[in-house]
From TrEMBL:
Domain PTS EIIB type-1: 5-88
Organism: Pseudomonas tritici
The reaction(s) this protein catalyses: N-acetyl-beta-D-muramate(out) + N(pros)-phospho-L-histidyl-[protein] = N-acetyl-beta-D-muramate 6-phosphate(in) + L-histidyl-[protein]
Keyword line: Cell membrane, Kinase, Membrane, Phosphotransferase system, Sugar transport, Transferase, Transmembrane, Transmembrane helix, Transport
Domain PTS EIIC type-1: 113-453
Name used for this protein in its record: PTS system N-acetylmuramic acid-specific EIIBC component
PANTHER family: PHOSPHOTRANSFERASE SYSTEM TRANSPORT PROTEIN, PTS SYSTEM N-ACETYLMURAMIC ACID-SPECIFIC EIIBC COMPONENT
Active site: 27 (phosphocysteine intermediate)
Length: 453
């Protein structure tokens, strides 16, 4: 914990102190900071801090890669230091002014970041659900566990409830998170999602057709909640304070709910169907080529932050088909990088680089690739290309073999094997091995300039 506190203190100093912080948060591997004045950041110092594997700037957000689990610990330590300092971050007035000035700097990047922030809090639930479903698949196989399924049906039933619970309330969770991200009332976001998912919709006929509960999935929920947040803010500015508390939620529900059922849910359904069928068709018909392109270009997408836009696609695939054929393909990008890192480890004479690789490889095998990207392959250049090419080989095979998983997102690497659909696990592991070998060979042949100590 002393190392974590020291790193938190060093990061605070490198970003110009707590008074320069507009927003502080973390994902699984990154400390994410938005600041008042970029000029106060000492980026060179931040990059060289022990424990920081890399630095990325996406829009107004500065991201420091510190590793899985550690990101949350560092952010907690930073907040503790800021609280102990007494001065704290900017007050609300200063924060609002600074955010207004930075509002239009990078609209695309900011939109993708907001989209990711809706789904990132759901990752632990998806991981648990996917792994439990994988355990159930194993327990149902007589060749592995004998007649366990017939002897303990109640246990399998309970595990099934545990594994499917997140999908039963998926739309509600997305509605609440979307309202939080877009500045609306959390309860109202849940209510909007509840309206779209209500079984009673099936009893209502509109324009000659019966309504479909849950149509459009998370896409429809996102559209409706964004509209709800806008209407709620508009009414808050128009209604007198004495009646705003009563009339705002009433009018927001009536207006948004009506527009949702008449227009936004059908629109969301059309978009959802297009995404699910389009992605499935591309993978089914594209075979080797589509798999190679998807996996080979995924690491560059991660660098730009555009991979965040794929999250709703993963969710839609599982909601529409019960499985996700895209995630195993994309996961090969990180696997190719493992092979590239092993090649660098065997070739380099730089002791510090060897230490970085040895520390990052274990989490790379588990599917968390940022430490290897920003600490090893990307700075060296050619190994990053070798990783992309190795991932393309693995992605092509996974696509050709039609390997799919039962999880939406959140797991990659070796742990993903536990969630692969029955009959495809060995093919996934074979693709994993080939991607590692391909990444190794491409990197070994391309070579790199070995950095001096």
């Amino acid at each position: 914990m002393e190392k974590t506190a020291a790193l938190a203190s060093d990061i605070l100093q490198g970003i110009g102190g707590e008074r320069n912080i507009l927003r502080l948060e973390n994902c699984m591997t990154r400390v994410r900071v938005e600041v008042l004045d970029d000029g106060q950041l000492d980026v060179a110092r931040l990059k060289n801090l022990p424990g920081v594997s890399g630095y990325v700037k996406q829009g107004a957000q500065h991201q420091l890669i510190v590793g899985p689990g550690k990101a949350a610990q560092v952010v907690d330590a930073m907040r503790a230091l800021m609280g102990a300092g007494g001065a704290g971050m900017l007050d609300d007035a200063e924060r609002t002014k600074a955010q207004a000035k930075a509002k239009y700097k990078a609209p695309m990047s900011d939109a993708l970041r907001q989209l990711a922030n809706v789904f990132i809090p759901l990752i632990p639930a998806f991981i648990a659900s996917g792994l439990i479903t994988g355990i159930i698949n194993i327990l149902k196989r007589p060749d592995i566990v004998g007649d366990f399924a017939t002897q303990y049906p109640n246990m399998l039933g309970i595990l099934g409830i545990f594994g499917s619970a997140v999908f039963a309330i998926m739309n509600i969770l997305v509605g609440v998170n979307a309202a939080k991200v877009f500045g609306g009332s959390l309860a109202m976001g849940g209510v909007m999602a509840g309206i779209l998912s209500s079984p009673q919709l099936a009893q209502i006929t509109l324009f000659g057709e019966a309504l479909q509960p849950g149509r459009g999935g998370v896409i429809a929920v996102l559209l409706v909640v964004v509209l709800m947040c806008w209407i709620e803010k508009k009414l808050r500015s128009l209604l007198p304070g004495s009646i705003e508390l009563i009339l705002n939620p009433l009018l927001t529900t009536l207006i948004t709910g009506s527009i949702a059922i008449v227009a936004l849910q059908p629109l969301g359904g059309w978009i959802s169907d297009a995404i699910a069928h389009g992605a499935s068709l591309a993978i089914d018909r594209g075979g080797l080529l589509v798999g190679a392109i998807l996996s080979g270009t995924f690491l560059p997408l991660v660098l730009t932050g555009l991979h965040q836009g794929l999250v709703p696609i993963h969710v839609e695939l599982v909601q529409a088909h019960g499985y996700n054929a895209l995630l195993p393909i994309l996961s090969m990008a990180g696997v190719g990088q493992v092979g590239a890192a092993i090649a660098v480890l065997m070739k380099t004479r730089n002791a510090r680089l060897k230490k970085v690789i040895k520390g990052a490889l274990p989490v790379g095998l588990l599917g968390i690739g940022e430490p290897l990207i920003f600490g090893v392959t990307l700075p060296l250049g050619k190994p990053f290309l070798g990783a992309c090419l190795g991932g393309a080989v693995g992605g092509a095979l996974i696509s050709y073999w039609k390997v799919a998983t039962v999880i939406t997102f959140g797991i990659s690497g070796l742990p993903l094997a536990l969630t692969i659909v029955t009959g495809k696990v060995m093919l996934y592991l074979l693709g994993y091995l080939i991607a590692v070998i391909a990444g190794f060979l491409f990197t070994w042949l391309l070579g790199f300039n070995d950095p001096e100590e």
